[in-house]
């Protein structure tokens, strides 16, 4: 058994390599959506800390939020954080002045952690896919997604639904 096989979601990574191994495991080949969901339910408690170890929290969310901010002048316009997880991107959007941020994620445990950040107006627990989301047409002035278009996560079949909820 390799060192990464001994790692347990939710136990907390101790090194950047362990954090990377956890992040890699949720995007492995042949993983099912159910397995991904189980991983995130277990991982929610230590997710922010684990990703901070490998530098994710201090790079990707900041870049994604800043890119969205470049295209949206009205920071009161509703925006959607896709695959929001624990709210890392949402926190950066708030810091940049956005005042109406909603979150969409398939893991209730991750959304429960996001609630603690007091960033989102609405938290929607659902998968991004061909299914119709509980969101009205033309609701959002923009959307942002990070690290969700990997094996077992969001697929290309979600784009028409995302487009439907954007203005």
Automatic annotation (TrEMBL):
Q: Which InterPro entries match?
A: Methyltransf_25 (IPR041698), SAM-dependent_MTases_sf (IPR029063)
Q: Where is the Methyltransferase domain?
A: 79-167
User: What organism does this protein naturally occur in?
Assistant: Owenia fusiformis (Polychaete worm)
Q: What is the lineage of its organism?
A: Eukaryota, Metazoa, Spiralia, Lophotrochozoa, Annelida
Stored CDD domains: AdoMet_MTases (cd02440)
Q: Which domain of life is it from?
A: Eukaryota
For this entry, the protein name equals Methyltransferase domain-containing protein
């Amino acid at each position: 058994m390799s060192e990464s096989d001994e790692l347990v979601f939710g136990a907390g990574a101790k090194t950047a390599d362990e954090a990377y191994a956890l992040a890699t495991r949720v995007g492995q080949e042949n993983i099912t959506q159910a397995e991904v969901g189980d991983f995130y339910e277990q991982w929610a408690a230590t997710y922010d800390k684990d990703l901070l170890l490998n530098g994710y929290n201090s790079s990707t969310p900041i870049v994604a939020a800043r890119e969205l901010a470049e295209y949206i002048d009205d920071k009161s316009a509703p925006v959607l954080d896709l695959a929001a997880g624990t709210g890392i991107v949402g926190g950066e959007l708030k810091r940049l002045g956005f005042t109406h941020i909603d979150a969409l994620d398939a893991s209730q445990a991750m959304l429960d952690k996001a609630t603690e950040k007091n960033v989102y107006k609405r938290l929607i627990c659902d998968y991004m896919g061909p299914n119709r989301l509980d969101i009205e047409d033309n609701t959002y002035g923009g959307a942002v997604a990070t690290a969700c278009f990997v094996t077992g996560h969001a697929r290309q079949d979600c784009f028409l639904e995302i487009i439907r909820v954007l203005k």
